[in-house]
Amino acid sequence: MDILKIFLYLLVYPGLLFLFVYSTFVEWIDRKLYAKFQNRMGPMYTGSHGILQPIADFVKLMAKEDIVPDKADKKLFNAVPILALTSVLTAGLLLPVWHFSDAFQSATSFQGDLIVIAYLLALPSFAYFLAGWASASMYSAIGGVRVLTLLFAYEVPMFLAILSPAVMAGSWRMAEIAAYYQANPWYLLINVFAFAVAVVALQAKLERVPFDIPHAETEVVGGAFTEYSGRKLAMFRLLADIQMVVGAGMIAALFLGGFPGGLIPGFIWFVVKTLIVVFILAAMRSVTARLRIDQMVSFSWKWLAPLALLQLVIVIFLKGYLQ
Amino acid sequence: MTKQDILSLLKAKVGSGFIGSIEPIPDQLWVEVRPEAVIQAVEILHRQTSARYLVSVGSDERDIKKRFAVYHLFTFDKDHFFVTLDVTADPHTPKVPSITNVIAGANWSEREIRDLLGIQFPGHPDPRRLVLADDWPAEVYPLRKEFDYSRKPESHPEQAYQFKDNPPGTTVVAMGPYFPVFEEATYFRLYVEGEKVVDVDYRGFYAHRGIEKLGDQTLTYNQIPFMAERICGICGFVHNVSFCKLVEHAADIKVPRRADYIRTIMLELERIHSHALWLGVAGHIIGFDTVLMQTWRMREPIMWLCEKITGNRKTYGMNLIGGVRRDIPKALVPEIRTKISNMEKEWLAVLDAVKDDTTLRMRLEKVGILNKEGCHEWAAVGPVARAADLDMDARKDHPYCAYDAVEFKVITADSNDVWGRTVVRILETLESFKIVNQSLDALMELPEGDIITEIRQDIPAGRIAISAVEAPRGEDVHFLLTGGNNRPVRWRVRCPTYPNLPTIPDMVRGEQVADVPIIVGSIDPCFSCTERMEVVDVNSGNIRIYGQEELSRWTAR
Predict the structure, then answer these.
(1) CB A162 within 8 A of CB A194
(2) Is residue A59 part of a domain?
(3) Residue A10 maps to a domain
(4) Which of B183, B288, B518 to mutate to test the interface with A (most CBs of A within 10 A)?
(5) Helix (H) or strand (E) holding B291
(6) Neighbour count for residue A189 (Cβ, 10 Å)
(7) Which distant-in-sequence residues (6+ apart) come within 8 Å of B454 by Cβ?
(8) From the candidates A212, A285, A288, A293, which should be mutated to test the interface with B, based on the most B CB atoms within 10 A?
(9) Closest approach of A217 to chain B, Cα-based (Å)
(10) Same domain for B330 and B431
(11) pLDDT in the model for residue B185
(12) Quick check: is B549 in a domain?
């Protein structure tokens, strides 16, 4: 039975199948919301209200010719999309979605899984950089360098922000942190600054407006992805969607109280809470212009990082006071 | 300054280089100077008077006057007239001293004249090819009269274009010839150090259409307005009006007042939808697609309105020399008013939203600086110049159509940057609503139907005219020298992008790569006007026409 559970966990929920299906759904929601903010309709044709459009896009891209530039470093060029996709899929497994009983501890829920998931979510950025490097194209190279610059801007605030709920709950395990806040729902309000910082940093991690600097099409064509096409591009796009789901799931687990109540209610909580995060992300990209890379870095260090630090100080003092 | 002052100043300073002067039509002064004296004359006009350089026109007049001619056009904006320096070049070895060292803005004009007519400009600082294709043979000059417009010379690949050398320590980033942000072919070669732009080189004119050549070899006065309209897909009506005005000036044709008002309304509707289009594109360039979607949505009713008035969304085909082809019936006026006031309301909301948007200001303020002096040197026009606090607007300075009878403000800003250009355009659109409304008032009072003057005589040969019309992008200048056979000897179009585009290197040097697209975008570039080219796809056979309802239903299935 336990073996079956683990297989279900790996392949169905929250593993490969679920992440694929749900990430396309989230992409559809994101596109629909973005369209609504712009008085458009968004995808309409494939499926009811275009709900299958992301899958259609994925299938279409998979069927397209896959071109590897002559001058590219071919091994690296081919390996990078797989590497990056693997890392976010693995990160997805760490989400505390199934409430396993204390008797059965899931292999993917352990003390310190918070650090691992943050690390795995950071890996794609390095992959993008390598992709840009391996492509041997000027636009890709600029894109790749921008990816790294951006990474240095948002990653520290991101880590500082996810530190606060962990410190408050006194645990490095997401399931325990979520359980802590489920027991004391009002404590969620303490972390409101960190929540804001984490959402903004997630937007930057996902390279969406206003932080889509690395692949700003009007400046550097496709950035690190300029030379990618067909299957590999499809993988990159899928991985961006999954990254959004996992990132939103992580934020929901840490800041919105996780997904209590066993399989079915937990699943519903998961959908509702990740969609709340996705809504904020979609709204953010419809009301902002793209920043310049220097503006992003200074914004990050002037506002995001100090705000996250302030939050940490608040949490430490409150924790001392409450005890 | 009056024309007399200028004449006496030139006579006194240029001395024996001064040949003579005429006033062909009231708002023009023609001064003929000897080639040796042209630099000095230009220096006086450019540095000591309030003259603003427009463009230089080359003309092959070997058949009529046994000479090549180069005309340097200037305008005195606040005194409402044009001054032209007329320089003769030898018919066999044409050569005229270059004035580019005095006025940077003459750079392209002189290179174009050299390319197309073979007039040499000794002393030109950058004598590379401008207009002709990379493989066009040397010493074949397409605008000379003996060159047939349909001739296709053989390819000479050895004529390859030379780009500037890399400044040390820089790499090349190519923006173009095909690049996501430029809708048309153009090539900015950026020399960058990290994210910083050290230098930039430009190559354009990839799609030169030779419209001027058609104008003086195959088309007639009645056809050219329609060709002129096809110079640009956005401000076509401007070119159309410009050309009609030229001929009306040259042949002294009086246009009915009602036609004047109709032209004014169409020009302003064009400005409204062009500025809305620009704002959207600017938003898209800096990743703010919500601006794009919203402004284009607002713009759509105006496009349908244009269709209702003229029969077409764009390229209206409204103008003929002497007037317009369709009236705006009084019954349509209330609908126009409603559409305009709806758009005005939405536009005020846009102004409100844009004004206080943090990320927009972060991206647009203090980038792409071009100050007053720079504008004067490069002869920049339109919102670029107005954002540098230069109060110039052809609608006020050289009133045409009904602009002498309507009230509006010329919007200026003093920030010299992309933000200033944005604000100028947004506010200008509000003025346009006012102008349309005033013109509609006038339409209600004038009798319906009186919209065109019949022309009974031929357009006389040997007349000259200049017209300036304020396009959304800036002032559009046309030059005409009439000839026999019911067509011009020389028709020169100087669209507003032509003087604005060469300012780009000055604006982007030292900026970041990320700012280049929006800086280029900030002049509202229209490469096809610069190149005077457009491909018209004519559908043969059955054409089915879909109406607004049908199209909307289709898209919103």
Answers:
(1) yes
(2) no
(3) no
(4) B288
(5) helix B289-310
(6) 8
(7) B322
(8) A288
(9) 7
(10) yes
(11) 83
(12) no
In chain A, the N- to C-terminal Cα span, in Å, equals: 41
- Contact check, Cβ <8 Å, A286/B290: yes
B284 contacts in A (CB within 8 Å)?
218
Q: How much is the average pLDDT of A205-209?
A: 90
pLDDT digits (tens, 9 = 90+) for B68-90: 999 999 999 888 999 999 999 99
User: Stretch A14-37: mean pLDDT, rounded?
Assistant: 91
Q: Does residue B384 lie within any of the structural domains?
A: yes
Q: Which CATH number does the domain housing residue B52 bear?
A: 3.30.460.80
* Structural domain harbouring B138: 3-155
Pair B515, B397 in one domain = yes
User: Does A148 score more than 80 pLDDT?
Assistant: yes
- In this prediction, the answer to ipTM > 0.90 reads no
Does residue B424 form part of some domain? yes
Residue range of the domain that includes A83: 67-322
End-to-end Cα separation, chain B, in angstroms: 63
Task: For residues B245 and B125, state if they share a domain.
Answer: no
Number of domains in chain A: 1
Provide the pLDDT for residue B534. Answer: 35
Write the DSSP symbol of residue B460. Answer: P
A209 Cβ under 8 Å from any chain B Cβ: yes
Cβ pair A287:B290 closer than 8 A: yes
- Answer yes or no: do A138 and B513 touch at CB < 8 A: no
Note the pLDDT tens digit of each residue in B271-285. Answer: 999 999 999 999 988
Residue of B359, B360, B552 to mutate when probing chain A, most A C-beta within 10 A? B359
Å between B232 CA and nearest CA of chain A: 23
Picking from A7-11, A198-202, B405-409, which range would have the lowest pLDDT averaged per residue?
A7-11
Quick check: B513 and A218 CB within 8 A?
A: no
Give the number of other Cβ atoms within 10 Å of residue A188's Cβ.
17
Residue B453 CB burial class (10 angstroms; 0-12, 13-18, ≥19): middle
- Beta strand pairing call for B187-193 and B196-203: antiparallel
* Residue ranges of chain B whose pLDDT lies below 50: 532-537
- Provide the number of structural domains found in chain B: 2
**CA pair distance B290, B287, nearest whole angstrom:** 9
Residue A299 is assigned to a structural domain of this protein: yes
Q: Is B501 inside any structural domain?
A: yes
Residues in chain B closer than 8 A to A290 (CB atoms): 286-288, 359, 363
Is residue A42, in this structure, part of any structural domain at all? no
Contact call for A138 and B290, based on CB within 8 A: no
Tokens of B297: 């949505």
pLDDT the model gives residue B536: 40
